[in-house]
Amino acid sequence: MSGPHDTFGAAEGPSTEDVGGVVMEWWGLVLAALLGLGTALWLGRRRYRYDDDVVHHTAPGWLSAGTVFLGALLAVPFALDWSVARTLTYLLAWVWAVALMVIDLDVRRLPDRLTLPAYPAAAVLLTLCSWAEQRWEALAWAAACAGGAVLVYLVLALIAAGSEGLGLGDVKLAGVLGGLLGWLAPMTAVLGLLTGFILGGVIAAVLLLSRRAGRRSYVSYGPVMVLGAYPWVLLGTG
User: Which of the four pLDDT bands, split at 50, 70 and 90, describes residue 26?
Assistant: First the structure.
């Protein structure tokens, strides 16, 4: 004979995935707004500039803050089944990526002080994601995709040596993006990095054909690499 708990179901607390969805829908957006504001204030101090930097496109603070918030807002429908760990990891990664996009457009450089510490930070955060979702194989794929991305982009940078194409900053960025995408799925990493590479090539071709740039003109690949990866984070199968 069924007891009352069998009839009505055992009382259960919200799952990790349910909490993650709530975080992204409510607290995640509040946090994104705060982080966006903090990023805008930090970027506004221009501490990333060197004395010999040539300034190209200085973005207003509201643009970086708005980009952080808009990216988080667009992710809400896709993040409803994410764990809290995954939500926070990819939100922090998005804030970091927006800062790099702004800097690359401003001084055409991806500073080591932001790219290199991202490796251990991503490793720790993705480990927490694997623990929260019990997907330890994803951590191995993240490491493999990060290493593969660095290798591929390093070869491309060496091929383009002497021109104003891919630089070592782009190589370091590719490794972090490869790890973040690879944790979701290996093919997600391939598609995300390939999308950014193709997008950069298209933009360079358009600038060349419109005579707004020459063969040795610099193209900021950081922003297109980030924008190419962004939709695949949302569509990732992890």
Answer: confident
